[in-house]
Amino acid sequence: MTEVERMRRYIKSKGVVFGDGSRLPELVDCVSADPIPALIERARDQGLKLIYVYDMQAQDESRREQDATIWKNVTLDGRGTWYAIGISYQALSVGRDYAVLVFLHELAHLFTDCIEDHTAAFHAYLDELLTEYNRANGTAIKNDYFGLSDQKPQKAPERAQERSDPIHM
Ligand SMILES: [Zn+2]
């Protein structure tokens, strides 16, 4: 079994239903603009094994509201720390800028090794990634400070009220 297959099996064992690949063109579009390919290469060096797509509606209730997610698996046989990033059909369907935001959000989790939380340090790092992306692409994607847990706790409720899109982890 390859490392990717092992990671897929691990995620599947947690109850995730993988997508059928029908949104791969949107995923490729999301991850192809600079600096994302280089970021993915760096993430691979740090253990990223898999990027997958899924349909939110096919997940069990506890996962149905996540429009993207990251997995960390510390392997028991000494192969190291592995990560996988999932992005939903629904997030990809909102449009490229939103898909980029949620994808960079998950990469920021990986690079800051802050998987469960959304600290000020996590968001500062995501701000840097967004600045770099916006500069390279002439876009103006803004951090939504999702779930910010230390210094601006007022942000999360505001966002929850404003948004009608699926939320992400
Ligand atoms: Zn998150």
Question: How would you sum up this structure, described in words?
Answer:
With 169 residues, the protein is an alpha+beta fold. It has one domain. Helix content is 46%, strand content 13%. It contains seven helices and three strands. The protein has a three-stranded mixed beta sheet, sandwiched between helices. Strand 2 and strand 3 form a beta hairpin. Helix 2 packs across helix 5 and helix 5 packs across helix 6. The chain is globular, with a radius of gyration of 15 Å. 31% of the residues are buried. The C terminus is likely disordered. The chain binds zinc ion (ZN). Zinc ion binds next to helix 5.
Tally of separate helices? 7
Strand order of the largest sheet: 1-3-2
Number of beta strands: 3
Ions, cofactors, ligands: which are bound? Answer: zinc ion
Biggest pleated sheet? 3 strands, mixed
* Total domain modules: 1
Low-pLDDT windows of residues: 153-167
Helical proportion, percent range: 40-55%
SS content category: alpha+beta
**What value does the Rg take, in angstroms?**
15 Å
Mean pLDDT: 88
Shape: globular
The share of residues in extended strands comes to: 5-15%
Order of helices and strands: HHHEEEHHHH
